[in-house]
Amino acid sequence: MGWYDLFSRFYDASLEALYVDARTTACEALQLAPGQAVLDLPCGTGQSLPGLVAGVGSQGAVLGLDFSAGMLRRAQARVERNGWTQVFLDRADVHEVDAARLAHVRGEPLVLDRLHVFLGLSAFPRWEQAFERLWALLRPGGRCVVVDCHAERPGVRGRMVNLVARAEIQRKTWLPLETVAEGFERRELPSRREHGGQLVLATGIKPR
Predict the structure, then answer these.
(1) Are 49 and 84 spatial neighbours (Cβ–Cβ below 8 Å)?
(2) What is the pTM of this model?
(3) Domain ranges in the chain?
(4) Between β-strands 112-118 and 138-150, what pairing exists: parallel, antiparallel or unpaired?
(5) Is residue 174 scored above 80 in pLDDT?
(6) What pLDDT is stored for residue 55 in this prediction?
(7) Order of strands, edge to edge, in the sheet holding 61-66?
(8) Cα–Cα distance, 126 to 131 (Å, whole number)
(9) What is the DSSP code (8-state) at residue 167?
(10) Distance separating alpha carbons of residues 193 and 189, to the nearest angstrom
(11) Superfamily of domain 3-205
(12) Per-residue pLDDT tens for 48-57?
């Protein structure tokens, strides 16, 4: 069993309330529209799904991918409790996901309109390459939102976050998006000591 499979057992109880406002803000920043397709990676236990589902509506598609089977089981339970038929979940490595994989998960080819990366780039092993792979999946004109925690010099709380989340919050996770996106925006979100640093939201559009 991997660490995140074990972490999934207490992830929601520990962290859901801590990030709920940031997840709402991230969904708003995506500027979702009914019928669109959005990729949520890593989807974790599905904490962002309510906002994503509300944005794309019944005719849209939310693809939730995660490497942890334990996280996905919690996400699937959330989907079943809510009766969401537009959510499609599967296990995938961010460093291997491609258009064929998304089509397999959806059950048919799709055009990816939105990309949602929440607390992922600080934890992915090869984070810059991971972003490049995800960015390649987004259609021209599509919007990406990245939310993560940053601390230039993590204190005790930050070091604890790095340990528990297997993360490196020293990374400036907005930089890959800033390099390639049009209309790039970056802003700091309300943060608490428990976050270990400053929550940062970055958004931008893939050039046509």
Answers:
(1) yes
(2) 0.96
(3) 3-205
(4) parallel
(5) yes
(6) 98
(7) 87-91, 61-66, 37-40, 112-118, 138-150, 198-205, 182-188
(8) 9
(9) -
(10) 13
(11) Vaccinia Virus protein VP39 (3.40.50.150)
(12) 999 999 999 9
